[in-house]
Structures are given as structure tokens and as C-alpha cells.
Design a protein that fits this description.
A: alpha/beta, Rossmann fold, 12 helices, globular, B: mainly alpha, ABC transporter involved in vitamin B12 uptake, BtuC, 77% helix, ABC_UrtB_arc (chain B), membrane (chain B), transport (chain B), BCAA_transport_permease (chain B)
Chain lengths: 262, 296
Amino acid sequence: MLEIESLGVSYGKTPILRDIDITVDDGEIVGIMGKNGVGKTTLVKAVMGLLEASDGRIVFDGDVVVDATEASADDASNGVTGHLATALGLGSTAGTWVSADERARRGMGYIPQGRDVFPELTVRENLKMGESINEDDDEVRYEDVYDYFPILEERRSQEAGTLSGGQQQMLAIGRALIGNPDLLLLDEPSEGVQPSIVQDITRDLQQVNRDLGTTILFVEQNLHVVQHLAERCYAIDKGTIVDELGPDRMQEREAVTEYLAV
Amino acid sequence: MALYELLNLTFQFLDSFAFIVLATVGLAIIFGMMGIINLAHGEFILVGAYATTLSFNLLGVPLVLAMLVGIIATTVYGIILERLIIHRLYGRLLDSMVVTFGISLVMIQLTRIVFGNSLDQIGTPFGGISYGVYSYSAYRIMLAGAAILTLAALYVVFTRTTFGIKARATIQDEETARSMGVDTDRMYLSTFAIGSALAGLTGALYAPTITMSPDLGANFLVEAFVAVVVGGPSVLIGTSLAGGFLGTIDAIFTYVGGTFIGQVALLTAAIFAIRFLPDGITGLLEDIRAKRREAQ
């Protein structure tokens, strides 16, 4: 479903991520854990296409959505179009870069850190925004979303900004699920949500994975979510992957907490 | 107050309301939804008015068709300007003011060079309605209807259509909207085109009533900016309430002391609004709603 090869991301000249290699198979739930400031959000945004990669490749569902490898950059910049684009100030045409909106239409669902629901749209309008995700699947899943999160149906006419933190997180997940994404990306789903609701959301995401076969990749620093949601997990530190934990090691508290601020 | 005088005051209100709403609505959409302070808004209206007048006078097309030409010409002009210049200014409020002020100056001088200092006017259609010693232009009454219809149409577009929901979402959080599959560049272009089309509509509708000169846009700009400030952040409700509030003030003071006093009252109201309602009428309403929510 998703292959990330030697991914690098920089802010200006400062490298934030380097040599990231991650593979997520169809139907898997994979976590990426790490402390604050190690590059988790940067990684999810780069996968979604909200940040440009400075190096490496990302392949989503068999299609290359990012190719910023040196070979690709050389090929493009040596070509006539590369020189012409640079001369016209249109930026480099090096490599491949599929925009975030196109990645969403191809089947990536994204739940940002802090939920980022549209506060002045109603719950129903927020959910409608998810309809553009995964254009290959015409079906919209309002009934499924309302089954998972009945509170959203009760409050469908209410402005999203007036919901509680937990309800906003449910809405953000529901909004991403409406279009039936092939891959669901979550950026710290537990942030700002009370513990009992975190457990509910963890259970709901597992249910979504079982019912709809949705592949899930999430970044997190909450021990409960990492241990209960992920089938396997990568650990990230200082912008690079430092460990990969399979199902057995995932159950060892010490093996997980080593990479979290617990 | 005699019935005739009440009617006169009502017509004065409808006239002011229509003018303020139609002058404001394009500016309010471009500012409220895109964060661009378009100081060339008056010159967008100029394009609509000139295109309408020229196609009526030179091509001899019916007035309604000439107005359609005016709207289309302004929309195309807006789209070209957005692609060439404006799209580089999103999120740069002060830069957008300087650049659009420059565009405004260029447009006025260009119009003067190409078309001279004036054009033949179309002439106001539909004649007048007489009541007692008063008479009033039927066309100007129709303009009030056009202003209300415009607000209603925009309400439907921005609250009841998928485009409107996506446009509002893009304004609130562009990055999240993109990650929901929205082509935000196209959304900004479309919203700017709607704002331009509305300015074109205003120019087209007022072309038969105003003197066609290159600086005609300035007649609209003051009322438009005052109404945007008084209306506050909510584009449609703000424009409607500001149109009602300022229209009432303008009508009453114009009725009492003439056009000049009406303008003075309008600007005085704007000063009071900036001082006591810095977020405009809709900002005040939003504060009240927030306090009620907290109390609950």
C-alpha cells in the first residue's frame, strides 16, 4: 500500500528527516512513535503531500507520488523542460511530486494534529468535505460513520467549533472515512483528548480497519494508543527511523517506553 | 409625517441600501473570503460599466445583453488579473493593498487614454413613478430588488452547494482543505472570479444611472469600504446588516439635510463603528453567541 524509501525532508537548509524507510502493507495498522520534536508530524505531512521531500521516494498504491532521488533530479534538470522551467522561474521540474489534493483523490485520508475540523462549518458540512477523498470509490459512507460515531448524527447541524475535543476528533476521523480512503493517516489522534475517549477512538479505528479493510498509518506518543492500536511500529528519533518493533516487542512496556516521553 | 413623505423616505432607503449592498458585495467576498484588500474594486466596477455602455452604444445590443457582456468582461478581467498578479498576494494583506492601488491607478489612466474623459451614457430605462409632488425612478427601485436577489443567490451558493462549502472550508483552513482533495488554487481563482463578476454586475446595473468617466469607481469605493468595516467578518450577513444599517442612516440624513449631510452621517457612523465595534456588527453578534455558549 505504501512504500517510503530513503525519504528526506528539509526546512530551508535544515534537514528534519533523513533516510526514512517505511513499508505498510494492505490492511495493516502501523504506528510511528517518538517524542516531541523528532519529526513525526513532518513525516505524516510529507506522506500526505503537505510538505515537499528533499530526497527519496514514496510509492502509494503502486504509483510513485514522490520521487526526489538524485537520479530523478539529474534526469529532469538535464532535460530541455527542466532548463526552460528554471529559466522562466517556474521552479524545478525535477522528479515526481503529486499534490496533496491529488493524493487525497487517489485514496489518502488525513487526520491532522489537533483535529483541524473546519470550525465554522456544521458537522454535516465537515463530513461532506471528505466526499472528494478516493475518487475511485463513488460510495459515501455517512451511515457507517454515524454507526461508529452516533454523536455526529445527533449534532450534524451544529458548528464544528462548538464540539468538545473528543467529538472534534471523532468528526475528523469520520470526515476522512466518508470517502472510504485506502490509507488513513493520523497525526497524534490522542492529543488533547481525554483518556476515556482515547480508548473509544482506538477501539473505533480497529473496528474501521476490520470492517472496511482500511490501512492505517499513525504517529503517536501515547503509550496506550501505540500498544493497543498498532500491529507493528517504527520508532523515530532525531529525524530518522531507529527501530522497528514487531507484535511481540510491542507488548513489552519497556521496549515501547524507551522511545516515548513516559 | 405625510404618507408621501414616508414613501419618499422608503424610496431613499431602498436606493441607499441597493447602492451600498451592490457596491460592497464583490469587495466583501474578495476581502472576507480571501484576505485581499482590493483597492482596485472601483475599477472592476468601471470595467463592468464601460463594457456594458460600449456594447450597448457601439454594438446596439439590448440592455440586458449589454449588462451580461459587462459581467462577463469583468469576470474575465478578474481571472486574468488573479492568475498574473493577485495569486501571489494571498496571505499578504498590506502587499495586496499596495499592488491593487497600483492596478487602480493604471486602470484609470489606461481608460482615460483609450476612451477619453467620458462616454455617452445609456440613459435610465423604465421611466419614473409619480406620487404627489414626488417622482421616483422605477429602475432604481428595481436595483433594490437586484441587491436582495444577489444576496439571496450568494447565500444559496455559499451555504447550499458543494462549491460553497469547499470555498468556505478553504478560507478557514487551506491545508486541511487540500488534504480533503480540494484543489485550493482553483477554489481561490473561482472565488475571485465570483467577486469580480459581482463588481461587474454592479457596474452593469449602475451604468445607465451614472456619468461614464474613468474615475467612476471612486463613487463606489467609499461606501464599499465603510460597509465592509461596519459589517464585519461574516461576508453575507455583514453586508446585509451593514446595507440595512448604513442605508437607514443615509436615507434619514439625506431626507433631512440633503445628499451631502447623508454622506457626512455615513462616514460619522463608520468612525463610531470602528471605535466601538472594531469587529463590525457580525463580530459583535459572534461575541454574544460565544458568551451564550459559554453560559450554557
